[in-house]
Each structure stands twice: as C-alpha cells, then as structure tokens.
Amino acid sequence: LLNQLREITGSTDVRILQQALQVSNGDLGEAVAFLTDRSSEAPQQNEATYYQTAQTGNDRHVNVGSQARANVIDLTGDDKEDLQRAIALSLEESSRTFQETGITDEEQAISRVLEASIAENKGSLTSTHMEVWSDPPNPHDRKRQENCPVGLKNVGNTCWFSAVIQSLFHLLEFQRLVLQYSPPANTQDLLCNQKEPRNLPFMQELRCLFSLMVGSKRRYVDPSRAVEILKGAFKSTDSQQQDVSEFSHKLLDWLEDAFQMKAEEEREGEQPKNPMVELFYGHFVAVGVLEGKKFENTETFGQYPLQVNGYKDLHESLEAAMIEGDIESLHSEKPGVSGQEHWFAELPPVLTFELSRFQFNQVLGRPEKIHNKLEFPAVLYLDRYLNRNRDITRVKRREMRRLKEHLLLLQQRLERYMSYGSGPKRCPLADVLEYTVEFASSQPILSSPSRAVDATGTQPGGTAAPPQPALRQGSPNSTEGPLSAPFPQQRVPVHKPLTQSRVLPNPLGQPAPRFITEEELRVLEGCLQRWRSEVEKDTRELQGYISRIHTTMELMYSDTTLMQVPYRLHAVLVHEGQASAGHYWAYIFSPQLQHWLKFNDVSVTKSTWEELVRDSFGGYRNASAYCLMYVDDKKPFLVQEKFDKETGQMLSGLDKLPADLKEYVKEDNRLFEKELREWDMLQAHRAAVEKLASAMAGTSTDHTVPCAPTACRQESEYMEQGSHAGNQEHWREDTERAVSQAAAQQEQHGPEGLLNAAIKLEYGRLLWLAQQDTSPENDPRLLYVMVYLIKNQAPKTILERTLLTQFADRDLSFNEQCKNIMKVAQEKLHSIRPEEVNIEEYETWHRDYHNFRETTVFLMIGLELFQKESYVEALMYLIYSYQYNKKLLSRGPYRGHDKELIAHYRRECLLRLNEHAAALFQSGEEPELSDGMTIMNELVVPCLPLLLANEEQAEERDMAAVEDIRNRWCSYLGQEMEPKLQETLTDFLPKLLDCSVETRSFRDPPRLPSLSTLELRERFSRVLTSLRQTSAKER
Questions:
Q1: What angle do CA 152, 154, 160 make, to 5 degrees?
Q2: ∠374-378-384 over CA atoms, to 5°?
Q3: C-alpha distance from residue 271 to each of 67, 144, 199 (Å)
Q4: What phi and psi, each to the nearest 5 degrees, are found at residue 143?
Q5: pLDDT of residue 954
Q6: N or C: the chain end with fewer CB closer than 10 Å?
Q7: Residues 6 or more apart whose Cβ sits within 8 Å of residue 714
Q8: How far from 907 is each of 403, 456, 751, 859, 1002, CA to CA, in Å?
Q9: Active site residue 159
Q10: What's the DSSP call for residue 307?
Q11: What separation in angstroms does the CA of 647 have from each of 176, 643, 651, 657?
C-alpha cells in the first residue's frame, strides 16, 4: 500500500504517507484525499522547494532549488552583462532539459496548462456525456477473421479494462489457469466469510469472457458483465476513466483470493500453493543501514514501480529504484546515516514494471502526466540485480560512478572548446581562430569606407550611412588615436564560391584591417593556424575519450556471466492523452505469429517494433507506456500452447475449453450464426424487391425483338436510372462504327461474319484504350465497362458475354444491317449454356463496376461541394467515397480511384471544418457556439478514427492532420474565457483526445442523382481539372 500511495501521489516522505494510511485505515482513495486536503491547507511553498526532485538518492537528480540560489542573477540594475548571462543560463537550462527528457520546456508548459485546465473545470461540470460506440448493423462486419485474435468492445470509457485483460489473456499460462478454474464447493459459506464477496462472481465472468475470446466467431466480444462487477469496487463514477494501476492491483488481488480459496479447499492440512502468487510475485532482499545499524531482510513484491523523471532508459530507472538513500552509507558505521539496496532473490515468471507516468502535484492539488522519454529493450537481462551477483554488481557500479565523474569532467572541458566566449552568443574556438585568419587576410575593396558615401552622408541607395569605423593605430591614413571600438561580436558571412551563388560586391567592402604589413600578417597567420590545429587536435582527443567511455559504459554489463537471466518483453500498455483524459491500448508479442499485435478495443492489427517504440517510449504525440510486462525467456510454457497428450496435436480453439465453457461458446456462436442468416435473408429479400420494382419500371411494350434477360439485368445494374438513350448513346455510336468498319473490310456480308469482325474491331479499340496511361480526369473506365474489365483482368468468358450484350442492344437498329447483327448477337446470348459462363461471376463483375460508378459519383459530388466551400455537405460524400474506394482497391489496384487523391480532400475538408468550428466557438455567441460544437461532435470527431485506422498503420499526413485538429483546440487552454466556453471546452476535449478506433455509425449515405455516362464523365473531368489547376501545390 505504501508503494502504491507513493506512486499515485509522487510523494517520497514515508512519514507523511504512513500517517495518511493510518488515518484512512488502509483505504487508498481516502489516503489520497487526506494528502490533497493537507496540501491545500499547507502554506504556499516557495518555488525552490516546489521544484526539488523526489528521488534524492539518485545521482542523476539535482536539487534544483539549491542550484537556483547559487545561480541567482540580479536583473534589477542596468548592467547589460548580467542580462546576457541570464539569457545564456536560461538557454543552457532549456538545452539540458531537452537532452534529458526529449521534449522542450514549451511543450512541457503547454502540457501542464492543458492538464491544469481540464482538471480545474472537469469537477465543475454537472453532467458528462459518455460516448459508447455502436455495433455495425451488418453482422458480417463483426465476423471474426480466421486466426485473428478477438477484440473487446469499449462499453463506455473501458479501454483501460481492454488493455489489461488482453495482456493477461495472451499470457497463455494465465489463460489456462483462469479457464480451468472451478469454484469451491462451499461457495456460499466462503462468500459470507470473505471481506470482498465479488471476487468469485468476477472470476466466473472472467472465465466466460476468456472462453469467448478463445472460441468466438465474433470479431470482438462484449465485456460488460465483468466490467460492471469490477466497477463496483471503485468509488469513482462510471463516467470517469479508471486508474489502471488501481485496477491492476484490484484485479490481481481478487484473482489471488479466488485461487487461495480453491487451494485451501484442495489441500487441507498442508500449506496451499497459490498459482497467482507463484506466477506474478517474487522476493527481494533489502540490505542496508538504518541510523548506523546494518540490517538485511526479505520482502515480497508484485508489480514493481519505477520512476520516469530524470532517466533515459529502463536500466537507469531500475538501478535508481534498487537503491534508497546514499549508497556510500551502506558501508559506513557512522551513526545517523541510512540507506538500503534491493537485490532480487527470486524473480517471478511474469515481471511487471509500473512506470510512474502520472504524478500528483501537491501544490496545485491535481494529477499531471509525465511525458518524458524512457527507452526499454525487447530483451532485459536481470543478472546485475540478483542477490547472488551482489558483489560483482557493486564493483561495476563503483566503476560506473567513476566513469560518469570522469565523463562529466571531459564533457565540461569539451564544452569550453565548443562554446567559446563570455557573452550569450558563443561558437567553437576553432571557428573563432579561423574567422580571425579570414579577417586578417581580407583586402578591403575601397581604400576608405568614406569613398562609398557621398557628401550628404548617404549611400548610393539613399539610406543613411553607418558610423565609420575607427582607424587602426599605425595606419598611414589614420588621424585618430588608439583603437577604441571593441572587436565586433558578429562576423560577416564569407563568400564561398562553391556553395553560394556570386552576388554583386558590397560597395562598403567586407570588414578588413585598415592597414597590416606583410610581416604582421605572416606572423599572425602562423600563430592562428598553429593554435587552430592544436585546438582541433585537443577537440578530437576529447571526443575520442568521451566516445570510448560511452562504449565502456554500454558494455559494462555485457559479460556472459551477467547475461544468463533473460526476460522477454511480452506486453506494453500505452496511454495517450493527459492525466484527466486519454485513451489506452496494448502492444502484445505473438510467439506463434512472430510479430507484434496492437489491441485497440475492438481493433486487432499487426504492428511492428518501430510503431511500438514510437508510441511507447514517450515524447511523441503525448503517448507513452505506463506498464511493461516481461516474461522469463527460459520458461516458454508461459506464452506457448499445450499439446494433447494422446494425439500430440497443439490444443487450440474450443479444444482448449472445459466442457461447461465449450457449451457456452457454442451457444453464443449459434446465436451469431442465426443473426448472420437472418441478415442474409433480409438482404436477399430487399434485393428481390428492388429487382422486381426495377423490372416492372423497365417493362417495354415493344415485343418484336426479345431482349436477353441477362443483358437487361446487367444494364440496370450499373446504368443508373437515367435516360436509357442518354446512357447508351456513346455505346451505340461506337457499336455502329465497328459494324460499318467490319462491313467495309468483309467481302461476304453475312450477319454472323459481320458480328465476329465487328466484335474483333471493337475489342481491339477497347484494349488499346485500356493500355493507355491516362490522367484521372480522362479515365476511360467511366465510359466503357469493357475497359474496366480488361484493366482488372476479367476472364475471357466475361469479356465475350459483355461484348455480345453490347451488340445485342435493342436500340442498335438504325438500318437493316445493324438490326440483323443485333438479332444474331441475341441468339448467341440465348444459346450460351450455364457451364460455359458462370452467371454469378458475370453479375459479380458488373456489380463491381456498378460500385465503381457509385464511388465515382460520391467522389465527384464531394469534390464539387468542396470547390464551392460547402464543407459540411462535402464531408459525407468524401467519407463514403473513401470507404467504398478502399473496399474496391482491396480486390485490385485498378478497381477504384487513386486513394491519395480522395484522402487528400477528405483530410482538407476535415481541417477546414475544424477551423470553421473553432472560429464559431471563439465567437462565444449563440447560435454560433452550438453550431461549432455540432460540427465537431457530429462530423469531425467521428471521422478522426477513420484517419487513424488504415490497414497497417495510419498515414503520416492523416496523423499530422489529427494532431493539428487536437492542437487547435488545446491552444484555447490557459486562455481567459467565459465560464460557459470553459465548460464547453472541458466537456469536449476528452472526446477529441479519445482515439478509439471503433467508429460510431454514420447516417445513411446521401442519395445519388441519376446521371448518364457522358454526364458523369464530363462533370468528373471538369471538377478534377479545376481543382488540379487551383491547388497544384497542395497535391
């Protein structure tokens, strides 16, 4: 409890923490409240005390308060040197902070302001709105893909639950323990005697949830029942996101109690073994001195807390956590000194590190998030922390301290060479010497600067002349005394003929000595060049020493004797956002697939180590790891499936489940399969009704020439509901042209021969069109279904039937010759047997073309509205065009349009809507304020997951756009505004920062107008050409 309270509050005063626990009778929530009230009643601390570091035992931490007093500069006077020193000191502090944390002071300040504003105003809200993502209506969108892990539905700010449960579920030894658990026989008696009666019901729900995650046919499952039981143990309201650390501790406590009851029942009279304790708990030896007296004792630990502030990697943080107090005091007999070391005596199979990303600001009375960067390895060797290696590690630690001290001295010496000077602007000493040589050897263009200035004191260009420099003593033209002006602090850039374009010479000339003899120049150049060579040599030697020390420190623990206990990274739990609002997800390594997986609520996608590093180390997009789970690499059973003893086959799916859970999962799968069948029947019924209505609307009274049914069906599939003549006009002209050319080439003019020749000519023309590299605005696929089929390599039978359908058109009858060819084509269509052409495949290809045309219409209307700056209406068209186009492109590169084109305008539309909404919000007036928030809540925010949920990972430009949108609204934090605006902003920001990938259901797509083929082609070409001309730079 003491460690948990230290982690939550960030306080290291053990006496105060123990007092808080005593007052609260061991309740963490009341202890935190006690400390909060205590800090608010305490007098205001001075700035030096506030910025003191928490870990005084770590040599990397510096008491900034005492250092500040030593570096105080009085700026109340008029001394300019004091001002320059103050600026230089400020820049040095900012540079050191950036090097240690990876983020700038400005970014940290913005983060603090954001956290402060959210925390200040969130408590004043009378109501909060909890967003729950709805299920897609089509159950096929919720169907699990083969061998893909199952996600967990976010049932209302429960991403914290999903991240922890997924990391434990994919720890297969833990999964087996939960699934094979059976409640004790005397459950009722145990529940009456238990302090926490909810652990057994939760254990039962967890078994059911795990069984569904093993064998469900759903893409994701609903954890509501388990979440509700668990939420009852927290004192916070349902609308607040739970503290993950508190949840993890509570979860393991309940599981430990549940397994303890079972173990006591099965092993009466013996010391029961609790599998949860054996899996997650270890022992360390505490060795130290307390007020001059040595002690050594053994303690149990579970999740090991680590600090982030002031450390660059996991080893540095772990080294500091293993030492408390002054390390030198451990070997001292002096009274009054205290300190201790921790050494792992027994490591658990699963080692979990809690990274203290959240700290409690006792001065401000609210939590803050730490955004600092902390690196961690994929394989962690823990030999140096083991009790059996205590002596070796101590020797190496002393050597590391000696190297660090020597490194610090070398870096300080090198800094004097690299930042030379006494003022705020410094530069490398070697460059100073080089610039001095350049100045001494420069020849002035004019013998006197005054010749470039006329008698009125102006330059040829009409500007006032600068003050004339003092003449050097000894110059033949000198009429004044010794040189009184100081040496200039800034140098004029020297012209470099190989890297800079030549410009007209400055009429004033470059700075140069007024007079210098050859002897003086030769001596000066010799000295300066020699000194520069010496400085460069010293610099190289210092850099070499520093590099060798860094290498020695990196290899300090690389002995094979200290690489015998490897722990492999199993899971990383990530938080993005601030202390008061954000989103959680998990990266988990799959030994079976041999790659990382990203578990983001319902979404489970493949990932990479590079993506994990970007999101987990910190210092980027406010995302960072808060929990690391390592497993013993020498115990593969922890993460590997077991094999059936009889068959030798690996157990998977339902075979892993006990009988009761197997039936439970089968019943759930039956219900889901029933939902799929009912959906398919409903869609088939709707399609039949639409087809019947279409057939009735298209019934013709002309029965002289029978129309092939398949031809008519194909025609209604993608020809829309526009004018039949308008749609077919370009086809009829091309067909008649092919017939005329075939008739001119054929000696015998039989209808069948003419048909074959005309088809051959038409196919050749369409094939040529398909092979051309055309721009999007001149896409021939919009005019010809055959070009679409050819480019996508449709089967030959599909192409032949499509061409026959073209020549069997009823409107192809302007003369007797075409009418005869039409009849022959229709007869050939009727004579095609089912085994020759797969009708379903034929209709699928033409349905795809119909979808391509619909996507084109969505895109065209969206671009037209975008061009008219009707961004609200344009967004829905662009969103649907992107989604439909994405589905088309998944089946082939030529089945849809350029993805980047649609993504660009979708992104631009969102950014402009965001700016418009921000402007309405900033006005502060009604109804503008309500309109702005409606745009954000109903349009912009639901679209953000679409930009971050691409196939493998989000596009960089989409991610940048999301960050721009968020930063636009976060920029309002810290600004003075009316209470109503502040309340609106505080209520809105958590929705904006929550990056759940499960998109809420949009309204039905807009109804598309009836367009002829030529009209569609003309409008699409016109809008693309116009946009390409006006925004060529953007594209």
A1: 85
A2: 80
A3: 56, 44, 22
A4: -85, 135
A5: 53
A6: C
A7: 802, 805, 842, 843, 846
A8: 52, 59, 55, 14, 18
A9: yes
A10: -
A11: 19, 8, 10, 17
**Taking 90 as the threshold, does the pLDDT of residue 240 lie above it?**
no
d(CA 969, CA 915): 10
- Tell me how far apart the alpha carbons of residues 984 and 930 are, in angstroms, rounded to a whole number: 10
SS3 state of residue 324: strand
**All residues at 6 or more sequence positions from 331 whose CB lies less than 8 Å from its CB, including other chains:** none
Cα–Cα distance between 119 and 106 in angstroms, integer?
20
**Residue of 575, 846, 850, 897 marked active site:** 575
Q: What is the dihedral of CA 860, 861, 866, 872, to 10 degrees?
A: -140
Alpha helix (H) residue ranges in 868-935: 871-889, 899-923, 928-935
Which residues have C-beta within 8 Å of that of residue 458, sequence separation ≥ 6?
A: 464, 465
User: Distance between CA atoms of 5 and 160, rounded to whole angstroms?
Assistant: 20
Q: Which two tokens stand for residue 122?
A: 């969130």
Contact 77, 343 (CB under 8 A): no
Q: Report how far residue 687's alpha carbon sits from residue 697's, in angstroms, rounded to the nearest whole number.
A: 15
Element (H, E) at 469: none
Residue found under tokens 């279409």? 694
Q: Hey, what amino acid is at 160?
A: W
* Peptide bond before residue 942 is cis, with ω within 30 degrees of 0: no
The residue annotated as part of the active site, out of 342, 371, 583, 897, is 583
For 657-692, the pLDDT digits (tens) are 888 898 999 999 999 999 999 988 888 877 877 776
Distance of alpha carbon 479 from alpha carbon 468, whole angstroms: 13
Q: How many residues does the chain have?
A: 1035
Tell whether the torsion through CA atoms of 308, 310, 311 and 317 is positive or negative. negative
Q: What is the DSSP letter of 613?
A: H
pLDDT per residue as tens digits for the range 482-509: 333 343 444 444 443 333 434 444 445 6
Residue 368 and residue 617 in contact, taking contact as beta carbons nearer than 8 Å: no
State CA 945 to chain mean position distance.
Answer: 11
Please determine, for residue 804, whether its predicted confidence score (pLDDT) is greater than 50.
yes
Out of 79-83, 108-112, 364-368, 895-899, least confident range = 108-112
β partners of residue 367: 360
- For the record, the structure tokens of 147 come out as 């061998």
Mean pLDDT of 813-839: 76
- Let me know: does 368 contact 358? Beta carbons within 8 Å: yes
List the structure tokens of 39: 């800090």
Q: Tell which wins on pLDDT, 133 or 353.
A: 353
Helix then strand count (H, E) for the chain reads 34, 16
DSSP type of residue 936? I
Helix (H) or strand (E) segment spanning residue 584 = strand 582-590
User: For the chain, what percentages of helix, strand and coil (3-state, to nearest 5) are there?
Assistant: 55, 10, 35
In this prediction, residue 90 has a pLDDT band, given cuts at 50, 70 and 90, of low
Compute the C-alpha angle 431/437/438, nearest 5°. 85
Q: Tell me if 89 sits within 8 A of 71, measured CB to CB.
A: yes
Provide the token pair at 55. Answer: 């870990």
Vertex 660, ends 659 and 663: CA angle to 5°?
Answer: 85
pLDDT at 328: 57
Of 191-195, 718-722, 723-727, give the lowest mean pLDDT range: 718-722
In angstroms, rounded to a whole number, what is the distance separating the alpha carbons of residues 867 and 1027? 7
- Whether a cis peptide bond, with omega within 30° of 0, leads into 927 is yes
Q: Which token pair is 231?
A: 């939420």
Which pTM was predicted? 0.57
Residues paired with residue 358 on neighbouring β-strands, in sequence order:
369
In whole angstroms, what is the distance from residue 565 CA to residue 285 CA?
Answer: 18
389: its two tokens: 């290696």
Q: Is 575 noted as a catalytic residue in this protein?
A: yes
Judge whether residue 971 has pLDDT over 70.
yes
Per-residue pLDDT at 858 exceeds 80: yes
Burial tier of 993 (Cβ tally within 10 Å: 0-12, 13-18, 19+): buried
